Amino acid sequence: MMNVLGITAPLFTLMALGFLAVKYNALSKEAIPGIARFVLVFCIPAIIVGNLSKNSPADIFNSDYVSIYAIAAVATFFISLGLIRSVRQGDAKQSSALAIGAAMPNSIFVGYPILLQVMPDMAAQVLVVCILVENLVVLPVALLTTEYFSADHKDKTLLGSLSSIFKRLINNPILIAIAVGLILSLSGFQLPLFIDESLGVLAKAAGGAALIVIGGSLVGNSIRDDLSTLGMIAGAKLLIQPALALLLITLWWDFDRQWQIALIVITASPMFTIYPILAAPYGAAKTASSSLLLTTVASYATLNTVLAFVL
C-alpha cells in the first residue's frame, strides 16, 4: 500500500495545491480555464505528435484495448442512464446529460498523470488511444442520446445533431494533433531536433498543470443536491465502469497485461473536467458540478484501492 500511496500522493497533493491556490486567491478562478486551455491546445497535442511521429500506428493502437474500453464506456453510459432515471423519477434529458459523466473518465487530467507514474513508457500511447475512443465513439453516442431525449431540441434533426458533433470534432486541437502525428508516422518524416525538443518541454508541463486545473476547478462547487443522484453518478463512474472493464478483460482472449492495468486505471478515474459545461445546456450543470466534486474526492480512496489491486 505504501508503494501505491507513493504513486498517488504527489498527484492529489498537486490537486490540493490547485484548490488552495484558487481558494485563497494565489491563483484566480478565472485563470483555471486558461491553464486548462494551455494543456489541451499545447501540452497534450505535443505529447501526441511527439509520440506518433516516432512510432508506426501499428505499434501504438491496441485493438483489444479500443474494443474493451469502448464497450465498457458505452455500457456504463446506458446503465447509469437507467439508474439515474429511476432515482430522479423521469426527466430523461437531464438524466442522459448526467450519465455522460459516468461514462467519460478524465483520461487527460487524471489518468495520464497516474500512468506517467505507473508506466511512463506507455502513458502517451495509452492517452492517444483513449482520446480517440472517447471523442469518436463514447461522446458522440452520449450526446446523440441526450439530444434525442431533449425536449428543447425536438426540432433538431438527427442530421443536425450529427453535423454539430462533427464540427466539434474537426475543431478539436487534440484530434488535429492525432491527424498530424499519423501523417508524420505514415510518411516516415523525422521532425527537426529543435521541434522535437520543444514538444518534449511542452509534454513535461502537462501532468503538473493538469492536476492544478483539477484542484482549482473544484473551488466553488458544493455537494448540495440529491445525494442519491450524486451517489449513483459517482458509483457508476468509480465502481461500475472499472468493474465492467475488469469483467471484459476476464472474458477477453489474449490481452497484454500492461494494457489491462492501463484500462483499469483509466476507467477508475473520475469524470472529465468539462462535464458541468456539457451538462449545462440540459439544465443539469449544478448536479454535474456537485457530482464532479464528490467523485474527484472519493477517487482518492477508490484509485488507491484499484492500484493496490492491479500492481
- Low-pLDDT stretches are none
Beta-strand percentage?
under 5%
Largest sheet: none
What is the CATH topology? Na+/H+ antiporter like fold
Overall 3D geometry?
A: globular
Cα end-to-end separation: 10 Å
User: What count of structural domains?
Assistant: 1
Helical percent range? Answer: over 70%
CATH class term: Mainly Alpha
Task: Give the helix tally.
Answer: 14
Round the Cα radius of gyration to an integer and report it.
19 Å
SSE ordering: HHHHHHHHHHHHHH
Kindly state the mean pLDDT as a whole number?
86
CATH architecture classification: Up-down Bundle
Query: How many strands?
Result: 0
Supply the helix-strand structural class.
Answer: mainly alpha
Explain how this protein is built:
The chain has a single domain, classed as Na+/H+ antiporter like fold (Up-down Bundle). The model has no long low-confidence stretch (mean pLDDT 86). The longest helix is centred in the middle third of the chain and has 27 residues. The protein is 79% helix and 0% strand. The protein is mostly helical.
Keywords:
311 residues, Na+/H+ antiporter like fold, 14 helices, 79% helix
Brief account:
Helices cover 79% and strands 0% of the residues. It is mainly α and 311 residues long.
Secondary-structure topology with pairs:
Layout: H1 2-23, H2 31-53, H3 57-60, H4 63-88, H5 92-103, H6 107-118, H7 123-149, H8 158-170, H9 173-187, H10 193-217, H11 227-251, H12 257-267, H13 275-279, H14 285-310
Helix pairs in contact: 1-10, 1-14, 2-7, 2-9, 2-10, 4-5, 4-7, 4-11, 4-12, 5-7, 5-11, 6-7, 6-10, 6-12, 7-8, 11-12, 11-14
